[in-house]
Design brief:
The protein is of the alpha/beta class and 440 residues long. It folds into 2 domains: 5-19 and 236-439, UDP-n-acetylglucosamine1-carboxyvinyl-transferase, Chain, CATH 3.65.10.10; 24-233, Enolpyruvate transferase domain (UDP-n-acetylglucosamine1-carboxyvinyl-transferase, Chain). Helices cover 30% and strands 30% of the residues. The protein has 13 helices and 24 strands. It has helices spanning 24-36, 50-61, 95-106, 118-121, 126-135, 168-178, 196-203, 238-250, 269-276, 321-329, 350-360, 396-408, 428-434; strands at 5-9, 15-19, 38-44, 65-70, 73-79, 89-90, 111-115, 138-141, 149-152, 156-162, 181-189, 209-213, 216-221, 231-233, 255-262, 280-289, 292-300, 308-309, 332-338, 364-368, 371-377, 389-390, 413-416, 438-439. It has a 4-stranded mixed sheet with strand order 22-23-1-24. The protein has a 4-stranded mixed sheet with strand order 2-15-17-16. Strands 4-5-3-14 form a 4-stranded mixed sheet, with helices on one face. Strand 16 (280-289) and strand 17 form a beta hairpin. The longest helix is centred in the first third of the chain and has 13 residues, at 24-36. It is globular, with a radius of gyration of 21 Å.
């Protein structure tokens, strides 16, 4: 039975070494590309949160053989394509999953119906459906361009698509569709976004051409390419590693090492920002795993100062702004975060919920249309009152962020609907307890 609420309380310093769960973005892509490929794909370190498990179920419904061999160890046997599913594809709460699968499915002559939970059914699909429609896919939906919807794919044509705003999900959907489009596909992005799809396509044997254009890039995927199964080791998710890292920075006397963290330069915006705030962070044991840079990150309690985060950094840390807001609450002076319109249409309106949650815990915060400013007291834990009960609207990152805040604030912090934490970080509570955190 899932608890109706969780409460985090201030205890002693956090100490220890942990490993973050597998990166969610890479886990989704490994399953999808494994299903699109011919032959066997062996995946180690797969994140076994609900979002990724939904993608695994979807790939099985599309005709791939998907088998769990042990904790984080999976095998996918693909047949070089997807077949029409006999059942509705339920992606749960996963926006990444449904948008990438829509792109993959669009390349085949099939019809598939997609749905999700209440939150996902309210989130926009237009930005993915638009380029897929220009390539020749069609869809029907009872409520405009939201789930549930039925996609009809196949017979796609080449597209050269300029992203109207930075989005790795849209880019990836177009590239996945382009695998089976006449003439392939091209994506022009004004700002570079996470490039896991490009890297993994190469690992599966595809040719992907990337050319820098100013602050952005032009990605070309020639058509007529076949993928071959391969071995994938999923590194630790930097978005999940962010929680124990920030907890250590704000809790006096703490020192925590998170092993095996993905350090792709398009995903390290939070670490860069925390260093600018004065965080004592060190990276060791740098290595390459599956074409991605990986290392161990050690965080020690640090006096932090407020900064203005460059809006152009947002694509490299979009999921980490809630936990950055918590770090900012313990810093000296204001931390300004702008250019975050995408946070309004995540699992929840994360700008509004973070502003409300921080305010409920006695933190100075000002909400803006595309961002928010947190005014830290500069007195560390003595400057954050806590004692709030935070409404999460079922958003896992809102819940985890405020639980981290409660570990260092003067009084406990409670969050509702904590069951949703399992979508991205199923072992979060146990991991934080193992470091010395008090969460009950």
């Amino acid at each position: 039975m899932t608890a109706a609420a969780l409460t985090a309380s201030r205890a002693g310093p956090l100490k220890g070494r942990v490993r973050a769960p597998g990166d969610k973005s890479i886990s989704h892509r490994a399953l999808i590309l494994g299903a699109l490929a011919t032959g066997e794909t062996a995946i180690e370190g797969l994140l076994e949160g609900d979002d990724v498990l939904r993608t695994a179920q979807a790939m099985a419904a599309f005709g791939a053989e998907v088998e769990r061999l042990g904790e984080g160890s999976w095998r996918v046997r693909g047949r070089g394509g997807l077949s029409e599913p006999a059942e509705v594809i339920d992606c749960g709460n996963s926006g990444t999953g449904v948008r990438l699968i829509l792109g993959a499915a669009a390349g085949f002559d099939l019809s598939a119906t997609f749905t999700g939970d209440e939150s996902l059914r309210g989130r926009p699909m237009r930005r993915v459906l638009k380029p897929l429609g220009e390539m020749g896919a069609t869809w029907t939906a009872s409520a405009g361009e939201t789930l549930p919807l039925t996609l009809k794919g196949g017979h796609l044509r080449h597209i050269a698509y300029r992203l109207p705003e930075p989005s790795a999900q849209v880019k990836s959907a177009v590239l996945l569709a382009g695998l089976h489009a006449r003439g392939g596909a091209e994506v022009i992005e004004p700002e570079a976004t996470r490039d896991h799809t490009e890297r993994m396509l190469r690992a599966f044997g595809a040719t992907v051409e990337v050319v820098a254009e100013g602050a952005g890039r032009r990605i070309r995927l020639p058509g007529g390419q076949a993928l071959s199964g391969t071995a994938v080791r999923v590194p630790g998710d930097p978005s999940s590693a962010a929680f124990p890292i920030v907890a250590a920075l704000i809790t006096p006397g703490s020192e925590v090492t998170v092993e095996g963290v993905l350090l792709n330069p398009l995903r390290t915006g939070l670490l860069e920002t925390l260093k600018e705030m004065g965080a004592d962070l060190t990276v060791s044991n740098l290595r390459d795993e599956g074409g991605e840079p990986v290392g161990d990150v050690t965080a020690r309690h640090s006096p932090l100062r407020g900064v203005e985060v460059p809006p152009e950094r947002a694509p490299s840390m979009i999921d980490e702004y809630p936990i950055l807001g918590v770090a900012a609450a313990f810093a000296e002076g204001p931390t300004v975060m702008r250019g975050l319109a995408e946070l309004r249409v995540k699992e929840s309106d994360r700008i509004a919920l973070m502003a409300a949650g921080l305010a409920a815990c006695g933190v100075g915060v000002e909400e803006e249309p595309e961002g928010f400013t947190v005014v830290g007291s500069g007195r560390g834990a003595r400057g954050v009152a806590g004692e709030g009960r935070v409404v999460t609207h079922g958003d896992h990152r809102i819940a985890m962020s405020h639980l981290v805040l409660g570990l260092a604030s003067e009084r406990p912090v409670a969050v509702d609907q904590p069951g949703m934490i399992a979508t991205s970080f199923p072992g979060f509570v146990a991991l934080m307890r193992g470091l010395g955190g008090e969460i009950a």
